[in-house]
Design brief:
heterodimer; A: 2 domains; 79% helix; B: mainly alpha; Arc Repressor Mutant, subunit A; 7 helices
């Protein structure tokens, strides 16, 4: 062992001792009280994902929308659009959430949890982009239909463009934040897989 | 309070300093540490049922705590686009003796490391075996050894 190596090992050992002393200090402090633990047991977790309740509620709304479309005598293509959306979106949500359980997501090791979160986020974004594009296509189709019926064409086009801009803006914001999150996950995964691969 | 809640309360009391140390390693803002601590407690409670089938409570606590801290950091990066700035304001020792200075220096060094490295060195400082570190991080023992060697080199480079 050369001098430099000896020094670093000695310093690291010193770090360990310092850390042990620090923990000893923490041990002596109260840190938590009864109220804090009680709150933790009662409080709902800060959600990473959609609430489980939102999925059956969403399905119920979709069914209701289809029923209403019949009752209200909506155009066939409008009904079809709602049905297609329901058929694609809800299995899509299931696909995004597959293998991810909110209650125990953090129980796993760091690498597998990060991989799961990354996969979930990626799928979730795809679903979001798909929904946005579908909505946009729907608006375009509706605008064209209204135009063909001569219902204030100019107004409909303006609204269509506004909705398109909102869709693009939402997607750009979501993409930018998701990219950072995915990059952060990649950093962790790459670092941990450095030697194993 | 039922048996489950009592058992959980005891568990948290026993491991409070471990949880606090992890939070402290990932943030030096008092409010943020409080938030992290609270979030970890919630996550521990939520995952308590699924944990009970497993054996090592300490490993589980480290997993949940580190996952929480790393995820919180990712969220911040998501918001700010930058690495979380770690202040050096918190001094667990109110006096300014040698030990207090050494502790501050220790944290200043560790906080120079990246998130993963910080997590690994924290587990090493806690005195966990390579097997335990590997199990928490999800990597092989050989990889733990490699990572620790690399981190030590990095610490050396930062003029330890």
């Amino acid at each position: 062992m050369n001098k430099e190596e000896f020094d670093i090992n000695q310093e690291l050992e010193q770090m360990r001792q310092d850390y042990a002393a620090l923990k000893e200090q923490f041990d002596k402090q109260q840190i938590i009280n009864e109220q804090l633990i009680q709150n933790a047991m009662k409080k709902d977790v800060r959600r990473l994902f959609l609430s489980k309740k939102s999925i059956p509620i969403g399905i119920a709304f979709a069914i209701l929308a289809v029923i209403l479309s019949y009752v209200q005598g909506m155009a066939w293509w409008l009904r079809l659009a709602i049905i297609i959306f329901s058929i694609i979106f809800f299995p899509g949500v299931y696909w995004a959430y597959k293998g991810v359980r909110e209650e125990e997501i953090y129980n796993g090791d760091i690498l597998s949890t990060t991989e799961k979160l990354r996969r979930f986020k990626k799928r979730y974004i795809l679903l979001e982009v798909g929904s946005c594009l579908y909505f946009f296509a729907f608006v375009v189709a509706a605008t064209l239909f209204m135009t063909s019926m001569n219902i204030s064409a100019e107004l409909m086009w303006r609204r269509g463009i506004l909705i398109a801009l909102l869709c693009v803006g939402t997607l750009a914001l979501e993409y930018s934040s998701a990219k950072r999150l995915l990059n952060a996950c990649d950093d962790i995964i790459d670092r941990l897989k450095m030697k194993d691969e | 309070m039922d048996n489950k809640e009592q058992a959980f309360t005891q568990l948290v009391r026993k491991h409070k300093s471990t949880i606090y140390s992890v939070c402290y390693m990932f943030s030096k803002d008092t409010d943020e540490i409080d938030d992290l601590f609270q979030e970890i407690l919630i996550r521990l409670w939520k995952g308590y049922d699924s944990f009970r089938a497993e054996s090592d409570v300490r490993t589980w606590i480290y997993r949940v705590s580190l996952n929480c801290c790393l995820n919180a950091d990712k969220k911040k990066r998501r918001l700010t686009g930058n690495r979380v700035p770690l202040s050096v304001d918190i001094d667990p020792f109110e006096d300014t003796d040698d030990r207090a200075l050494q502790t501050k220096r220790l944290y200043a060094r560790i906080n120079q490391l990246g998130l993963v490295d910080r997590a690994i060195i924290l587990l090493w400082l806690e005195g966990l075996s390579y097997e335990e570190i590997g199990s928490i991080m999800g990597i092989t023992v050989k990889n733990v050894s490699f990572q620790l060697h690399r981190i030590k080199e990095e610490l050396k480079k930062s003029n330890l």
